[in-house]
Amino acid sequence: MDDSETIEQAVQQAVQQAVQQAKKQAVQQAKKQAMAQIMDSKSEITLGLLNAVEENESLSQRSMAQELGIEKRRISDVPPQTEWRLSKQSIPGHNI
Question: For the segment 26-47, what is each residue's pLDDT rounded down to a tens digit?
């Protein structure tokens, strides 16, 4: 193997590493942007709910959840844990 082949292999390897690094950075940036959009959406929803409660003090977490088709379910007995989920009735095409 002569010097020109060695140099060409080294250049090809450097290019491959640069491309892999660029792909990795692009994926990381895309993930950051997606998370920012999700956080913006969650913030908008939270602000909307807070504004609704501000306008109508008779609203509660449970009454809003019921209106939105969300229910609170127990997911564990030990320790007692619950989570909010879409109710089966609120899922289009789901028959109970």
Answer: 999 999 888 888 888 888 888 8
* Length of the chain, in residues: 96
Look up tokens 């080294």; give the residue: 10
Q: At which residue do the structure tokens 């020109």 appear?
A: 4
| Distance in angstroms (rounded) separating the CA atoms of residues 11 and 83 | 55
Q: What gap in Å lies between CA 1 and CA 8, rounded to an integer?
A: 11
Q: Are residues 7 and 54 in the same domain?
A: yes
Domain contains 65: no
Please check whether residue 40 lies inside any domain of the structure. Answer: yes
The domain in which residue 8 lies consists of 3-59
What's the rounded mean pLDDT across residues 63-83?
83
